[in-house]
Amino acid sequence: MNEQFRVFATCDIGEALHLLRNKGYEVEVYPQPEPPPKALVVEKVRAGIDGLITTLRDKIDAEVFEAGKGTLKVVAQYAVGFDNINRADANRYRIPFTNTADVLTEATAEFAFFLMGAVARKLWSAEHLTRENKWGYWHPYLPFLGDEVTGKTIAIIGTGRIGLAMIKKCTGFDMNILCYDPAYQNEAYVRKIQEVLNLRHAHGISPERNWIKYVFSIEDAIRHADYVSVHVPLLREGESPAPTYHLFNERTLRMMKPTAFLINTSRGPVVDEAALAQALKENWIAGAALDVYEEEPLPAGSLLRDPAIEDRCRLYPHFASAGRITRLSTDPNKGMAGRCVQGLIDVLEGNYGGDPAEMPYVVNKEAFGK
Ligand code: NAD
């Protein structure tokens, strides 16, 4: 029988919470769909909980860690991105936090791929035409045409887990692939993808011999791409030698081809939205499809809602990981819920010899290095 651990979850993550309850944990869940006020989270932590389950909506910083001094043992984040958690503060208080990497990789990459198709082939405008009964005729090019994805060149910005999964999906569409990542180049993966592309051509499956390569600057990637798909973490000034805050700004958007599309499923602040709205309005680029925003939910007055760019700007509600299995499976190898709960259990029950540096889902291992 476990010691009765107390856990507060800032939102309901489904069946996986029963795994904790079945182990005898006392689990309290914030009952509303909206995020709890920070003061409430601080109050729960101060009341002595052992574990806190968070999502990307909760700001977790020194105030929270201070409230949990001596009692809070783990923060289990239900997401792969953790820009809402102040890593330096967590390390100062030596509180491990976990994330749910890997299990959402394929779902997020396929969503990015679908966004690319939706904006390029004008799925939204085409459906409106049909629904609003404005489809008056079949015509070779009226009232509009879309742009093909097949055979085009894509730039993958950030070749971590999701970027590599996106590359895999693009190979099935005979795409050429430019990869850019200042910190991590998976040359072996790129070599294997090139072998697949060669084989597809050799067997007559792909008409052209498609190619994939790393380039050394973001300019080299985006200047030559028909599609640019962004798969970086949000890293602000001081958090990385290559910060990603406003990586896409007036300068980089102007480098893109006027026929190119930007797809962002990473984090909103990676794109300067004011610059993007201007880029769309003034036709520096052909279109954009976004799942994430500088402020979420997207404010009513956002420049991105401008009707003048509506047909070329697809907007989705931070939905890329929102597949049924990906979000809710209790299996830590399949679902965010299962992995989140397992990360929490590992820390509270002292798995892996009780060493957070050895625990697979702990992010800030550096705080526990020997
Ligand atoms: P990852 O850490 O495996 O990969 C990120 C890659 O970006 C790394 O290889 C890193 O070196 C690279 N990178 C860092 N700075 C860069 C820069 N300046 N330029 C180019 N590349 C840079 O992470 P992941 O699992 O692939 O996830 C990526 C991000 O996607 C997450 O951090 C999260 O913010 C976002 N995400 C969003 C959703 C969604 O629902 N929209 C779902 C999952 C993940």
Descriptive report:
- This protein has 370 residues and is of the alpha/beta class.
- The model has no long low-confidence stretch (mean pLDDT 97).
- Helices cover 32% and strands 12% of the residues.
- α1 (16-22) runs parallel beside α13 (336-348), α5 crosses α7 (161-171) and α7 (161-171) packs parallel to α8.
- Bound molecules: nicotinamide-adenine-dinucleotide (NAD).
Keywords summarizing the entry:
370 residues; 12% strand; single chain; alpha/beta; binds nicotinamide-adenine-dinucleotide; seven-stranded parallel beta sheet; 32% helix
Number of helices: 13
Distance between the termini: 31 Å
Residue share in β-strands: 5-15%
Helix/strand class: alpha/beta
Topology:
Layout: E1 6-9, H1 16-22, E2 26-29, H2 38-46, E3 51-54, H3 62-67, E4 74-77, H4 87-92, E5 97-98, H5 105-120, H6 123-131, E6 153-157, H7 161-171, E7 176-180, H8 187-202, E8 212-214, H9 218-222, E9 227-230, H10 250-255, E10 261-264, H11 273-281, E11 287-290, E12 313-315, H12 324-328, H13 336-348
Parallel strand pairs: 1-2, 1-3, 3-4, 4-5, 6-7, 6-9, 7-8, 9-10, 10-11, 11-12
Helix pairs in contact: 1-13, 5-7, 7-8
The structure holds nicotinamide-adenine-dinucleotide.
